[in-house]
Amino acid sequence: MSKDQKRFFLTEAEIPTQWYNIQADMKNKPQPILHPKTKEELKAEDLFPMFSQECSRQELDQTNAWIDIPEPVRELYKNYRCTPLVRATGLEKALGTPAHIYFKNESVSPVGSHKLNSALAQAYYCQQEGITNITTETGAGQWGTAVSYAAKVFGLEAAVYQVKISYEQKPYRRSLMQMFGAQVIASPSMSTRAGKDILTKDPNNQGSLGTAISEAIELAESTPNCKYVLGSVMSHVTLHQTIIGLEAEKQMALAGEYPDIVVACFGGGSNFGGIAFPFMRHNILEGKQTRFIAAEPASCPKLTQGEFRYDFGDVAGHTPLLPMFSLGHDFMPANIHAGGLRYHGAGVIASQLLKDGLMEAVDIKQLESFQAGVLFAKAEGIVPAPESCHAIAATIREAQKCKETGEQKVILFNLSGHGLIDMTAYDNYLAGNLHD
Amino acid sequence: MSKDQKRFFLTEAEIPTQWYNIQADMKNKPQPILHPKTKEELKAEDLFPMFSQECSRQELDQTNAWIDIPEPVRELYKNYRCTPLVRATGLEKALGTPAHIYFKNESVSPVGSHKLNSALAQAYYCQQEGITNITTETGAGQWGTAVSYAAKVFGLEAAVYQVKISYEQKPYRRSLMQMFGAQVIASPSMSTRAGKDILTKDPNNQGSLGTAISEAIELAESTPNCKYVLGSVMSHVTLHQTIIGLEAEKQMALAGEYPDIVVACFGGGSNFGGIAFPFMRHNILEGKQTRFIAAEPASCPKLTQGEFRYDFGDVAGHTPLLPMFSLGHDFMPANIHAGGLRYHGAGVIASQLLKDGLMEAVDIKQLESFQAGVLFAKAEGIVPAPESCHAIAATIREAQKCKETGEQKVILFNLSGHGLIDMTAYDNYLAGNLHD
Description:
Shape of chain A: globular
Number of strands of chain A: 15
Mean pLDDT of chain A: 94
Oligomer: homodimer
């Protein structure tokens, strides 16, 4: 056991007071988002019917590198931030690697994941703009839980459409959302036209993220003072997540190190951008050579095998057209346990950065991800979310390369959430019932 | 929302390096523990067959107020300690109380509760003494999880006898223990004589803590290099838990306050003693007037309705005779969700302190405990363990008294664990299916 310091914290006064908007510093800006019907460049006003006005403006802001975090959001961040930066000495020892491995532990948030960083911001802006109701979809449930809690804090009503099969298979997630006061509806439901259409054709339909999104958007558009909130993909969501990397940068300085490699799992890109972009600005502005690795599931390989093109964000094709790496908006990924990574496209910022060679991507098979997760749990005592297991697997690959070469690289990864509410997945893995 | 500081941490250098043994400072020492057969005063050597030698000595130490925490245990504490001291501003606001409420958040440990503080110490001493196997019982599963993880860290084999009904009803707990590498056996089992006797008479027996203890002790006694480890009641377990209060004392100083009231839930007394005893020493030695409140379940009211007498620690009557408040070692509490509080007796130290008026006790009904837990979850975002809900309920009672009198008392309680793996209990509560 090392006598080195294990965990690093900032004081409340040291917690960053602004988010970092990498769009302002990118040499090649993301290509414009297009209106789905007119195909013209989208303006912030075009997003107002769906999102809060402030989030709509943040979405398209390519000018301001630093955005103030509103005071009430900063106060709520204090409930769980700064999150620990941890030297993974147990994992290093288990691997026998000379690499120094650090992880940022976002699992300590009240809802168990990084998702709260943006849910609080989005709920706050809605409340400020006189919105009374918010709605969203959730698959695995991490985002739905964050929205339920954020709504409660700001006195908003939340309606969460949860994919029916998850609603039934993950009752603990549903209970958690209900405890925070949210209305949780199994999707497809009879509460929307989209849901009714599906159920009248197929009464046993088990739901999908695509259907749940359609129901949530329909509810938002048909309800006064109701907005739709989204947990990833969009640039404003990633902006809110940069608090992760900005804290980590200061904490790494406390540890006296700077990362050679930054790793995060990748669904829509918000936890990846959250930890990576603050460090990437030093690559862009000062010529640092840090590598950034996005770890995606092999079953949904938009970064490693997708095509860079304009595509819709949802299955039904109702969203604006986004310039992104995509497997096609009608791509149906296999039903892996990392539900948060089952998305066909990548956010527009990460897509541009990948195109320009500023970041890399690797794909991880399901068994490798759980193998990594169990090794990490035994070594560090924390059960990672199935999504986070992908980041751990990619980290282990790099640490093992260091073992071969003898290089003492510094690797930082984001532990985006814990897996305590996903133990069924581990059960299946440990029983040998999971397959790639 | 308050602009006051919300959370308080110590640096690693400030984490206490010794545990506090209140026995040394008590004016009336606990009465001697007696040998179950000879009824003579127990010596440390009499405990060696069951526990590690070092824990046996700590158990009976009435001389040394400060016991060094071994360096390897301190290193492992760093993985999650110091735990946050949190000002419960959300709860204060929800109650509209002038009281200042703080909680020590032990739920952030890798296994989700304070139990790890002692499991690590006990596993370490076993390893140092050449022990290769440890065994224990678990009901709700918090202790079994801590033992599984601690055994893994120190390279020991762990066998956990889990009460059969919990084994079947709480599969997530079982998975967690198995992930850490423990063998988990539903009790009663065919692996011991005690288990076989029960199963041949009653093949459908659902198990009890008493049966699981009998099986674990039998395994320890019949296996070379195997010791039994215990999660509460015994004085050495409480000793290890004093890290909670010792940290909290320094953290309260950072907050510029000192508690008027300290509250914890009470099963066998280890989390209560852990947070209370370090503060209580200032009552004993310097005449401070802090109140200490143990919150027990109304269904198992040993402190408020039990009798102070010599009694066995287990149902079968195999343990030494302990001078304690007890409901009788054959008392069968109702099957409440706070499994960790379903124990018939109180540790000998707390029993003596209660007898001498140095602490108080209140009993809390199940519905009041869950009502408090849900209020806390909504206000602070953390789902408390059903056990911890009792401490929250007692805290709320005191905070409401402050509201009536206008007194700005400082209340500190211990959040002994999270309830993320006990959501079934909350489900039942929210659905109106729980009764007192």
